[in-house]
Amino acid sequence: MARRGVPPDQLDLLAWQPPAPVAKFEERRVRAATISVRLALAVSAALKDADARGLSREEIARRMSEFLGTHVSRATLDGYASAAREDRVISVPRFVALLHATRDRRLLEILAEPMDWAVIERRHLPLIELAAVQQRREELRRHAESLLRQARTEGGL
Question: Same domain for 39 and 95?
């Protein structure tokens, strides 16, 4: 919607949203009763999204084959993406190759989420450590104030 009296190319600061620190699939796309089916749905979603970005399953299979040094076919990818094919659960090395080929870290989030972990970009690690240090500093400040109050009430000061 155009804002009155504002050039159309001017950014709206109030419309800005920070980037999500954790990339994950919409729950409706990967909801499943078992981890095997959830993983197959995640593989399927990642392959569909890659295709929408112009990265075909054939190209993903080629990149995986190159990464692994062994042949991966499109049919194999289709099997990994099929929730009905419980005999075709993707192996860890092939999952890593799929991550390498698609660069879709939402796939890793599927594995981390059940343990209440998150997959983040490495560049955020210093900020996370800073937050932990600040939290600890605040705990120490409160503890020091408590000790000071105790010393005052007990006549130590």
Answer: yes
Tell me, yes or no, whether 62 lies in a domain.
yes
Phi-psi region of 33 (alpha: psi -120 to 50; beta: other; left: phi over 0): alpha
Q: Which residues of 16-43 are buried (b: 16+ CB within 10 A; e: fewer)?
A: eeeeeeebbbeeeebeeeeeebbbbbbb
**Tens-digit pLDDT profile for residues 41-80:** 999 999 999 999 999 999 999 999 999 999 999 999 999 9
- At residue 26, what are phi and psi to the nearest 5 degrees? -60, 135
Closest among 66, 86, 83 to 29, alpha carbons compared:
83
Cβ neighbours for 57, distance < 8 A, ≥ 6 positions apart: 47, 50, 51, 74, 77, 78
| Both structure tokens of 111 | 């594995």
Q: Model's pTM, two decimal places?
A: 0.75
Only one residue has tokens 């009905």, namely: 84
For residue 146, tell me if it sits in a domain: yes
